[in-house]
Design a protein that fits this description.
By secondary structure, the protein is of the alpha/beta class. The chain has twelve helices and nine strands. The strands form two sheets. A five-stranded parallel beta sheet has the order 7-6-5-8-9. Strands 2-1-3-4 form a four-stranded parallel beta sheet, sandwiched between helices. The protein binds phosphoric acid mono(formamide)ester and norvaline (NVA).
Length: 311
């Protein structure tokens, strides 16, 4: 049995298999052919943080695959009142067929997975957002970009870490520009650079958004204040001064470059209104693709269940 906790746990081929499944199921869905790949399966969806896209896409996705989603807000289940993650895992995974969790520390989802009898999917932690980055890759392919130079401008956060792992595994060029003090995590960087040696990915870091964006095919960013960092807002907004993706910055990218944003977007901070609206087609295709990419991931995980796991 495999869990989907981080891109780093998969080979390039495995990641591409998931993307191919997503593409196939997307075509079927567009033709209103709802193939019940996960018939009668239940997806438990545990949320310790807010969500629009992750909740709607997983719930709709599992339904369209023939199953049902259970929305479990930590405010409403005993987890929120202190029931341990490992007990929650041992209970829920005896009843449902797959679990998606959005939580804080990566160690919490790792612990859930350790005690789970069913595949666990990371729907965002403080460290990673792997389903988002698979979606971004699918979106780039649909925009006709196959071997991109990607520029990530902004916070060295869960989204940046997931870009690092994807680039390192698939072998495309990634340039990360963060303000001083907001760089990516050292351990994540060194793991990614190890994988990059194998894949040949050229990954570079700077404190210069212009240098990162010059000639890039894909420019991307994320909020400067992630969920759980609300108290740091004032300090962060000052530190990120100069990191807005605006028309001046986009002008340095390749002609026809796309702009991606995982959303929600804060206009006037990490992205200007003009850039956002000029690239709305790509951004909302990316949002829709959460539905399709995650179906590919769920079906792939279902195909890789260890058959003798049930005692
Ligand atoms: N991009 C993303 O994960 O959005 P939500 O927080 O709305 O789920
Ligand atoms: N970095 C953001 C992503 C939101 C989808 C956060 O963690 O809040």
């Amino acid at each position: 049995m495999r869990h989907f906790l981080s891109i780093k746990d998969f080979t390039k081929n495995e990641l591409l298999e998931m993307i191919e499944l997503a593409q196939k199921i997307k075509i079927q869905t567009k033709k209103r052919e709802f193939v019940p790949y996960l018939e009668h399966q239940t997806l438990g969806m545990i949320f310790e943080k807010s969500s629009t896209r992750t909740r709607v896409s997983f719930e709709t996705g599992i339904y369209q695959l023939g199953g049902v989603g259970l929305f479990l807000s930590s405010n409403d289940i005993q987890l929120g009142r202190g029931e341990p993650m490992k007990d929650t895992a041992r209970v829920i995974s005896r009843m449902v067929d797959m679990v998606m969790i959005r939580t804080f520390e990566q160690s919490k989802i790792d612990e859930f997975a350790k005690y789970s009898k069913v595949p666990v999917i990371n729907g965002l932690t403080d460290s990673y957002h792997p389903v988002q980055i698979m979606t971004d890759y699918l979106t780039m392919l649909e925009c006709g970009i196959t071997n991109p130079v990607v520029a990530y401008v902004g916070d060295g956060n869960n989204i940046a870490h997931s870009w690092l792992m994807l680039s390192a595994k698939l072998g495309f060029e990634l340039r990360v520009a963060t303000p001083k003090g907001y760089e990516c995590d050292d351990e994540v960087v060194s793991t990614a650079l190890e994988f990059a040696k194998e894949s040949g990915a050229n990954i570079t870091f700077s404190h210069d958004p212009k240098e990162a964006v010059k000639g890039a095919d894909v420019v991307t960013t994320d909020t400067w204040v992630s969920m759980g960092q609300e108290d740091e807002k004032e300090v962060r907004l000052k530190a990120f001064n100069g990191y807005i993706v605006d028309n001046n910055l986009m002008a340095l990218a390749q002609d026809g470059a796309i702009f991606l944003h995982c959303l929600p977007a804060y206009r006037g901070y990490e992205v200007s209104e003009e850039v956002f609206e000029a690239h709305a087609d790509e951004i909302f295709l990316e949002a829709e693709n959460r539905l399709h990419a995650q179906k590919g991931i769920m079906v792939w995980l279902d195909n890789h269940r260890d058959e003798d796991i049930d005692e």
